[in-house]
Amino acid sequence: MLSEQQLIELISGVARSGDPVATGIGDDAAVLDDGTVLSCDMLVEGVDFERARSTPWQIGARAAAVNLSDLAAMAARPVCLLAAFGIPAGFEEVAELAAGIASHGVPLAGGDLSRAGELTVTITAVGRAERPVLRSGGRPGDLLAVTGTLGGQAASGYTAEIVPRLQEGIQLAGLASAMIDLSDGIATDAARLAHASGCGGRVLLGRLPLAEGATVEMAASGGEDYELLAAIPPGRALPPWLTVVGELAEGDRMVMVDADGHPRDMAGWDHFT
Amino acid sequence: MLSEQQLIELISGVARSGDPVATGIGDDAAVLDDGTVLSCDMLVEGVDFERARSTPWQIGARAAAVNLSDLAAMAARPVCLLAAFGIPAGFEEVAELAAGIASHGVPLAGGDLSRAGELTVTITAVGRAERPVLRSGGRPGDLLAVTGTLGGQAASGYTAEIVPRLQEGIQLAGLASAMIDLSDGIATDAARLAHASGCGGRVLLGRLPLAEGATVEMAASGGEDYELLAAIPPGRALPPWLTVVGELAEGDRMVMVDADGHPRDMAGWDHFT
User: Fold this and answer.
1) Is the complex ipTM higher than 0.90?
2) A62, A82, A85, A106: which to substitute to probe chain B, counting the most B Cβ within 10 Å?
3) Could you say which of B11, B110, B112 has the minimum Cβ distance to residue A24?
4) Predicted structure pTM score
């Protein structure tokens, strides 16, 4: 079986950037030349959720949230959502799914339904950004800062409600040099941001703002918190809702540093392994 | 199990039109207030295709085509595609799928991959239309005309290549009062257009342009031809690539009329039954 990274590389072979697609695969979302921002994420039963553990409303709310979080990470404001549902035999709660999707206040503008062997929800989020913030704009010396607290999803058994950081993302448009949402954990996502920016860097694990009940490990690699990680050039005034957790640096390694100053090997998770 | 129509009605309960979504669920695609047109269709293994009968390239090409056809039916020009893949264990031909998606010359701007029990391909097509043509603009007396020939997919066992009628759709922007693409067969889709337009009407089965090897039944209700059906106000000069097959009329019934002048009951197919 191919890894998620390998699959993305395969697709990138035919995906392309260039007019009218200003930024293509590899960022949180695609950006068109008119500032339209597009994100597409798929949730699959048994992989991303279990029907025994989540209500249809929660599944829908979550599917929308992870896409809206991608818009937030580009500093885009949401315009509308599209939803495609794969519906297994006997599942009749599509209205509850749709209500969950619509629960973030972003209109559901269209979609598709198909019979399927397992429940799947694929959302496309459409947004607009005056000044989209990419993953690739970070520079050595930029501070790394996060919104909210980390590890809450892992501590809750991945059942906590996801609140996409849309307002914070828009407010970071004029401040951040690069941004990513924390889907897989900062240990993985900080490395993604640094790699896209052609940098290395470090995250101080002792600085991570821990959610209630969360361990440092949960905060660093539990994943699914959907907070924003922003790179911010030094010397700028930071809003009080950001916590500085590290910095970008020359090089190509993003290191997690523990309280004793030792590097720690903490990978996030790959959806395919 | 709910019918496709019932599911669409359930979703419509939370979907909404209004700024910035000018036209929502119920048309071939959603239209935003800036002329952005969005279509989203999902293809599922065992429902919409069989891996034993289609190559990954063909599956990808088809998934893109049905979405681009929705843009064509709105008189929109395509801007880009997004793709979400559900990938079952052992399937390693994602690059071929993606190449098929890209085969129509529209850039693949982003997407998502997830492990899944069955192969699914969900495409979101993004387009722009100066003058989008809706299903709902038809009036009694408008001619009904189709592009190309009908029944070819049914005659081929649903393996023929789908060529979305993008150029024709754009050329019909200034001419058609209403438009729909023929996904389920004209017996079903003409009724959809008429219903959306608040009309009835008739289609003369003897006028249907038959594809090679196709019967009238295949042309009327075989489905999957993805030709365009346009309503055109009377008295306008028609391009030579259109075939007039009927007209809209007062009332609420769309009737298929055979060569002897008798109404025929020919429903298209429902993806859920």
Assistant:
1) no
2) A82
3) B110
4) 0.88
